[in-house]
Amino acid sequence: MLMRTDPFRDFDRFAQQVFGAATPGTWSKPAPMPMDAYRAGDQFVICFDLPGVDPGAIELDVERNVLTVKAERRPLPTDGDVQLQVSERRLGVFSRQLFLGDTLDADHITADYDAGVLTVRIPVAEKAKPRRIEVTGSGEQREIKA
């Protein structure tokens, strides 16, 4: 049997359920979806922490350069003899929106989900990649990097 050592945690959780607002020590709705984002070569990589989420309950949408990630953590199926002792993991729908710059190719986004981490890869658009421009003049040609 699990013992509860913080009586105020249960009160905070109860207050959040009743009033729908965050109290000290609890998360506000919707719960945050922690992420890391970095550039790796010619793509941007975004990693979202989504432990306990079924891959079928994750949605990614792109509309007008806005990437929306939605995930739903559902309660575990239980039979009639189960008595919940502690419930600290947030359930419900989590969402996050990211604004994508014009330098990203939103038509070729890929995503995979492994070990509770959703990894989204967004390639850099061809028009945003560095390229060489040929300079001509006075009978000679030179190349400079733009």
Description:
- There is one protein chain.
- It contains 1 helix and 9 strands, in the order H-E-E-E-E-E-E-E-E-E.
- The protein has one domain: Immunoglobulin-like.
- The longest helix has 13 residues, at 7-19.
- It is mostly beta strands and 146 residues long.
- The chain has one helix at residues 7-19; strands at residues 35-40, 43-49, 58-63, 66-73, 92-99, 110-114, 117-123, 132-137, 140-145.
- The strands form 3 sheets. The protein has a 4-stranded antiparallel beta sheet, with no helix packed on it. A 3-stranded antiparallel beta sheet has the order 3-4-5, with no helix packed on it.
- Strand 3 (58-63) and strand 4 form a beta hairpin.
- The radius of gyration is 23 Å and the shape is elongated.
- It comes from Amycolatopsis australiensis.
- Pfam families: HSP20 (PF00011).
- InterPro entries: A-crystallin/Hsp20_dom, HSP20-like_chaperone, Small_HSP.
- This is HSP20 family protein.
